[in-house]
Design brief:
Distance between the termini: 15 Å
Radius of gyration: 20 Å
Helix content: over 70%
Strand content: under 5%
């Protein structure tokens, strides 16, 4: 990646492709009540869980395919499947059809997530890759900020189905832009691909202690944040009496926290390696989670303290995640797609587990939610400690 302050066009495109996932998750949230009312059934949340499961499964296929056939061909397929799924959601006649089409949409959406990371690995050395992933995080953070607001306007004036039409148009726009802008970056393609080869590659990566530790670290870190996103509506609204609109504004602040983390990370990478940044900030999120847990046990915390500690928690995770991605993929140039797929699937699986944990244990109290968040962050720290002494050369 160029050291110029001007962002490369390809990196902006990759960021847009990566942001499709968060946008697809958040844009239709304002339509939840209308969906349940129209279909006469509750449980619209299952459509979100189905989307995340689709992301986890789909990534495992696109990685090996992109290693064999290049990065661009699978993107065409992914965008086409994404558009079919989005239009299927717009035409859904019941909750079951909506759920199935959300899975289809996710199976297409994950192409951009997997291949986007692989393209960054193709084009950048580890240190520059960390800067690129930091830039991606900063741009992608706009998704959770803007998507619910845009979705609210669309639902208000055109209905919930229109949010999926907008997503289909977004998929088409990205496909056309990708066709015109993105050049093929996989110049060392695998000689052949078979199901046995794919299994062997995944088995090899699964036995790679450093790669799996980084993948688990990233998954536990992102999962700890997802705990808050999943559990906060019950905890914050119930304990502090916020309206849905006020709570939506608080959720939007999370995107700003990630943008701030990205800016700080870019500055740190001017004088530090990704490995050094990771070692310095991996400790912050467990300590912040523990602080929130302890204080909420001892005191009736005002809302600004809860939100302040939570934003610092998100900020600390944002300082860690781009560097982890760069370090995890650095040794796997010839199999960057496969490595990216396994890392992404691991992250999605652990995020899903985090959501299940919140569903089981969340009793509506701040200290319980904080305990789950701190547990995830502590597991991430343990993953780092597992390999700290055996890391290969610094990034």
């Amino acid at each position: 990646m160029s050291r110029s302050r001007r962002l490369p066009v390809w990196l902006i495109l990759i960021a847009a492709m990566t942001a499709v996932g968060p946008v697809s998750i958040d844009m239709y949230l304002p339509g939840f009540p209308a969906i349940e009312q129209e279909f006469g059934t509750r449980g619209v949340e299952i459509t979100m869980a189905a989307f995340i499961i689709g992301l986890a499964v789909g990534q495992l296929f696109y990685g090996p395919i992109s290693d064999r056939f290049g990065r661009k061909p699978p993107l065409y397929v992914g965008f086409a499947v994404y558009m079919i799924g989005a239009l299927g959601c717009a035409l859904a006649v019941n909750m079951t059809m909506l759920t199935v089409m959300r899975v289809v949409q996710a199976l297409g959406c994950c192409a951009g997530l997997v291949i986007g990371r692989a393209v960054v690995r193709d084009r950048c050395e580890p240190h520059e890759a960390a800067r690129a992933f930091t830039t991606l995080t900063m741009i992608v953070a706009l998704g959770p900020v803007l998507a619910p607001a845009v979705g609210g306007v669309v639902v208000t004036y055109f209905g919930w189905r229109a949010t999926f039409v907008v997503q289909a148009v977004l998929g088409l726009t990205l496909m056309v832009t990708m066709h015109r802008v993105l050049t093929e970056s996989n110049v060392t393609r695998a000689a052949g691909v078979s199901f046995a080869d794919v299994l062997r590659n995944y088995a090899r990566l699964s036995c790679d202690r450093q790669f799996m530790a980084f993948s688990l670290l990233l998954g536990f870190s992102m999962g700890s944040m997802f705990c808050y996103v999943t559990g906060a509506p019950k905890v914050i609204i119930q304990n502090y009496g916020l309206s849905a609109q006020q709570f939506g504004a608080l959720i939007g602040l999370n995107g700003l926290a990630f943008m701030s983390a990205s800016i700080l990370n870019m500055r740190a990478l001017r004088t530090m390696t990704p490995r050094e940044v990771l070692g310095r900030y991996i400790w912050a999120s467990p300590l912040l989670g523990l602080a929130l847990f302890t204080l909420s046990l001892l005191f009736a915390l005002p809302l600004y303290v809860v939100v302040g500690l939570q934003l610092l928690f998100f900020l600390s995770v944002g300082r860690v995640s781009p560097n982890v991605s760069a370090l995890a993929l650095a040794p796997h140039g010839r199999a960057a797609g496969t490595a990216s797929a396994l890392m992404g699937a691991t992250q999605s699986a652990l995020t899903t587990c985090a959501g299940v944990a919140v569903a089981i244990f969340n009793d509506g109290t701040v200290h319980t939610l904080a305990a789950i968040m701190a547990s995830g962050a502590s597991l991430a720290l343990l993953c780092y400690l597992w390999i700290r002494q055996t890391l290969t050369k610094p990034g």
